[in-house]
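Task: encode each sequence below as structure tokens.

Item 1
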Amino acid sequence: MSQKEAVEYWIVSAKEDWDVAQDLLKSNKFSHALFFLQLSLEKLIKAVHISRKDERPLYVHNLVLLSQKANVEFTDSELVDLKEISSFNVTARYDSYKRDFYNKATREFASEWMKRGGNIRSKLISFLKEYEH
């Protein structure tokens, strides 16, 4: 797979996950929406990584670490948000965390984090303009 194909793969997959997150939010499945928010941002960061370095990104879910490896500069506030959003992946996957996360993921909580994640998403997409279809 060429560099361009790999970047486009991650962009398309990230868009699909973003759309799923939006649908889940509308369906009141807030913890699931946040899980797909995390996946979408992870895939966009991986697309940026490949576009900048033409190498495979790490197989991790830590958005802060992935951003550092991709040389994506975020504000301190955005890094705090990325750290929190990274936790949505882990807490949604493992039974020991699911119940607490489910209770935490209210409509207000999920809406706020979808907004913050959307801002980060926009920033990441701006780094990938040359790959737009």
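Item 2
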Amino acid sequence: MNISRVSQERQVLLREIWRENVLKWLNNELPKEEYSKFGKARIASLVDALIHLCRESRKRGRNRSADKELNRWAVKVNELIERYPSCKIVGWDPPYHRLSFGDDFSTLRLKGATEVEAGTAYSAIGLAELDALEGLIKCSCGRWFLARQRNQKSCSAICRHRLYEKTDAFKAKRRKYMKEYNRLKASGKVK
């Protein structure tokens, strides 16, 4: 097997695991004891800062004046991530007959955070490293999701319709329909 192909497959697998980890945290899909209101806010602000940092780094290639903004976001990300100190660990997985590599948060004192929160923060950092954070979006209903297309703004058809109902075009169409309906109801043709 080609080494670059193995590396690519590993990257794809890690990207999916990290996305799932971040989305589960942001959508409160993990056990209740792992969460705190402040922990969720910390991870959400970290994800937001990482998204801005990635956008600014892409702009930098085209615009040299973006350095100041890029530096500002980098400082913010570093401030947010310093809450989660870790040390690297290596382990042996007997059932799979392979080495496993990871981060250990238990030996270090986390500043008001859980180990799961710290793991989620490192997952977000890993996604930023792969430049795979751009698709994470918060829907108008408050749920986080992975946008499959650039113009996607809603997590479901229900939310998409709710968003459409707030547009002026929908309101005008609805007014016209209700005016006609009320006219027909007054004439006795509709119950």
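Check on item 2: The mean pLDDT is 82. Residues 15 and 127 are 6 Å apart (CA to CA).
End of task.
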